[in-house]
Amino acid sequence: MDGLMVPMEHVLVIAGLLFICGLFGLMLRRNIIFMLMSLEVMLNSAALAFIAAGAHWGQADGQIIFMLILTVAAAEVAVGLGLVLQIQRRFKTLDMDQAHRLRG
Amino acid sequence: MNTIALIPLFPLLSATLLIMSAGRMPRHIAATIGAGSVGLSAICVALLARDFLADGQVLELTLWTWMSVGDFAPRIAFYIDGLTIVMMSVITGVGFLIHLYSIEFMWEDESICRYFTYMNLFVAAMLLLVMADNLLLLYLGWEGVGVCSYLLVGFWYKDPANGAAARKAFIVTRIGDTAMALGLFLLLTELGTLDIQPMMIAANSQWQTGDALPVLATALLLGGAVGKSAQLPLHTWLPDAMAGPTPVSALIHAATMVTAGVYLIARTYGLFLLAPPTMEAVAWIGLATLLIAGFTALAQNDIKRILAYSTISQIGYMFLALGVGAFASGIFHLMTHAFFKALLFLAAGAVIHCLHHEHNIFRMGGLRTRLPIVFLSFFIGSAALAALPFTSGFYSKDAILLSAWALEDIGPWLWAGGLLGALLTSIYSFRLVFIVFFGEAKTEPDRQPGWKMAGPLLLLCLLSLVGGWFALPLAGVFPAAAEHTVNHAVEWISIGTPLLGLLLAYLMFLGGQLSVDKMVASSGARALRDFWFSGWRIDQLYDVLWVTPYKKISYWMRNEPVDAIYNSIVAANQWAHHRLLVLQNGELRWYATTMVVGLILLLAVMLRNAP
To answer: Transmembrane segments in this chain: where (chain A) (predicted)?
Structure first.
């Protein structure tokens, strides 16, 4: 049944590691571009897990979800980059620790 | 018929005119309007009284329905019978004389316009009170005269003491008025109407003599009467009310307003007859008041305060008369008292006016030759007050004492107390006369009363002398008093008592055979005199019992402790809000991190709960 060349667990571990990389990147990076890239990494790690699961059970669902994630990621990047441009224009910086106006 | 509506309308219109002039009216016009309107009312009353005496027809006039709430539709309606005629005659007649007198007395006051506004408003309200056909309209007039009394006691408002006296008068009477309002509510719910005549008929058919309800209702009405008429225990406002101008004391605090309580009880006598315990209470209150006020008057040295305590004491006689069921005698004494007490106050006002506003009787003296008209007035007024034979006060007081004597059981006690009161009355009235008008002159008068003062004084002298011969048209109003045969010895005693008082006063204050200084030489006697001087320390007692605790409670309550509970909820919310506000700081990475932490926590919880 298993259509995978490598064991399922390995793929899931890779996906998990990728997700954690993205997560830490999101939390630790201050530059908005890198934060967006970390988001992409997280999305892709989730997509990888879907692909692996789809191959494991021989179902097309995993690939369909992958396509969906790809689309969402593309849309997100389009909107995100637009916002990045605006942030750069307004705040003259991409450092998110400085680019806020709330005095909390 | 229309003249009836005109009677209260004249002073009301005049007051409105004077109010609208905002005090800028020239004083001679203000005085003419102010006194003239009451004069016109007096003429109307005289015409009305002439018709009434001719045919004895009870008149009723409904002007309009005041308000209509469900079944309750009180009307603005007047009911004119003999009692009303007597009261209206006193109010407008004596009222007009006092207004005339006021023109001269108040001429140099800058606020004469305001003065006549209040006085006219008072006369209008007082007329409304006595003419009202239902108790609600009566209550309107009742509160109206209360407001005018407040305004006039505090007339010279620039002195804070006068303002305090005005507030005291208002608040103390308000206590009684609250009881009276409760009485009205009770009567309305129980009898379904406040119209006085139908109400008394309904009460007679619904209630038995001595039931709890009539006793309660009349006790509440009595509360109002006690407050307004300055009887124990609510009498403390009247001596302080002397802070107002003297004609005000004459009109409001002697002749008319303070007798409103007597009028109220007489008007609703049908209810009081159903409540013998209340009647007895009325008699005892009257007796206690007349004795306490009589003793207090003996020790005072302010001419107006002596007269004030004497007023309280004389109203005590009226209450005594009402309490023993001699309603007509009570009203008779009300009328004669209005004559001679107005006379005394106006004469005292003339003394004060001519003596640079001197109030202390020990700084007067020898005025007999210097102010002869005033002396004559004061002497006649005092003679009537002391009930010397053949003055008006003699007839009315004698009638009261004889009615008290005729009562079974407690009658002789009431009679003896009243007799002691008569002796006191005689002593303090002639003490006043002897100290003020005889002896050495200590202050020289700087002017003589003019005709506007002397005229009313002389007219009131005449009324005080012959007022006892008036036959009041009260026959149809009250139930006929039972004929009682009176022991002649009793009559002679009540005639002789005032003369004894006169003799004692002569010996003590003029002849010098009985020296007051020697009498108060011992410390006990001096303490007694101080006790009387302070009005039996009743004011101090009320200060300790009510005023001080009230001020203390107000002091504690100044930060609104009840609100503290609600304020603490608000404060807790605000505190939490500030703590949570830290989380919303605009830091994108902080948001992301908190989301992750939250997610991990959620996952942990879910995995822990998973089977």
So the answer is: 12-29, 41-58, 64-85
Q: Is A6 left (phi over 0), alpha (psi -120 to 50) or beta?
A: beta
Whether residues A26 and B587 touch (CB distance < 8 A) is answered with no
The SS3 of residue B21 is coil
The ipTM value here is 0.83
What's the distance, Cα to Cα, between the start and end of chain A in Å? 56
List pLDDT tens digits, range B537-593: 888 899 899 889 999 999 988 888 888 899 999 999 999 999 988 888 878 888 888
Chain-centroid distance, C-alpha B255: 9
**pLDDT tens by residue, B424-461:** 999 999 988 888 888 787 777 888 888 888 899 999 99
A27·B587 Cβ contact <8 A: no
Mean pLDDT across A56-65: 90
Q: For residue B578, what is the nearest residue in chain A, using CA coordinates? A: A104
Q: What is the pTM of this model?
A: 0.79
- What's residue B484's pLDDT? 66
Phi–psi pair at B542, nearest 5 degrees: -65, -35
CA–CA dist B1, B59 (Å, integer): 8
**Which residues in chain B touch residue A101, judged by CB atoms under 8 angstroms apart?**
586
A96, A101, A103: best mutation site toward chain B, by most B Cβ within 10 Å?
A96
- Tell whether A8 is within 8 A of chain B (Cβ): no
Give the SS3 label for residue B359.
coil
Closest-CA residue to B317 (of B239, B225, B392, B398): B398
Section B111-117 average pLDDT: 89
Of A36, A38, A102, A103, which to mutate for an interface test with B (greatest number of B Cβ within 10 Å)?
A102
Residues B602-610 have a mean pLDDT of 91
Kindly provide the b/e burial profile for residues B343-375, where b requires at least 16 CB atoms within 10 angstroms of the residue's own CB. bbbbbbbbbbbbbeebbebeebbbbbebbebbb
Question: Residue A104 is nearest to which of B582, B589, B596, comparing CB atoms?
Answer: B582
Based on its alpha-carbon atoms, the radius of gyration of chain B, rounded to whole angstroms, reads 30
CA-based end-to-end distance of chain B: 100
The domain segmentation of chain A, as residue ranges, is 8-89
> Does residue B121 contact residue B50 with C-beta atoms inside 8 Å?
no
Residue B140: is its pLDDT beyond 80? yes
Any bridge partners for residue B64, and if so which? B76
CATH of domain A8-89: 1.10.287.3510
Would the CB atoms of B586 and A28 count as touching at under 8 Å? Answer: no
Structure tokens at B595: 């989301």
pLDDT, position B39 = 93
Query: Pick from B293, B527, B305: which is nearest to B420 by CA?
Result: B293
